[in-house]
Write a structure and sequence with these properties.
two-stranded antiparallel sheet; 4 helices; 8 strands; 23% helix; globular
Length: 171
Amino acid sequence: MLEVGNLASAVEDRSHFAAWAVVSSPLILSFNLSDPRRMDRAWPIISNRALLGVNQRWAGSPGRRVGFQPQNGFQAWAKPMGNLTYAVFLLNGGEQAINALLPIRNISGAWGHAGVCLQDLFTGESLPTLEPGQDLGIEGLQPHDSGMFCAWPVVAGRKGHRPYCRAAAAA
């Protein structure tokens, strides 16, 4: 059951919601909507259009785990969004801060040796392009925190290429 609004912190709520979104699970709220404190905490999370778009977009499969480090609780998940675009979820499920690193090749082998464009789906911020062979990562990812990204290859000569994550966020 989706526990946004019922967990220990807004950070855990956000991570929980993003995990459900990346695997296309039904987003059924389970907290008292008439409780203003919980609603105020949950609203920025449950109204994030980019995360809702990831959850609702279907391009053949739900998200799958593409990285796992049981020694520190790190997990990475990727969901195809169509047109070589992926939603990528990084989670620190452990009790210590970690440097969460995911080789880009774990997300899609179809990208070959292209650079990768990124957008943070929590903030909407465009991030620096990753060069071929560079890892996607978050330094000092705190316990139970996460990152959610839209990732797509740099494609020479394709001006105006609009990845599906960004299109969903703009809707």
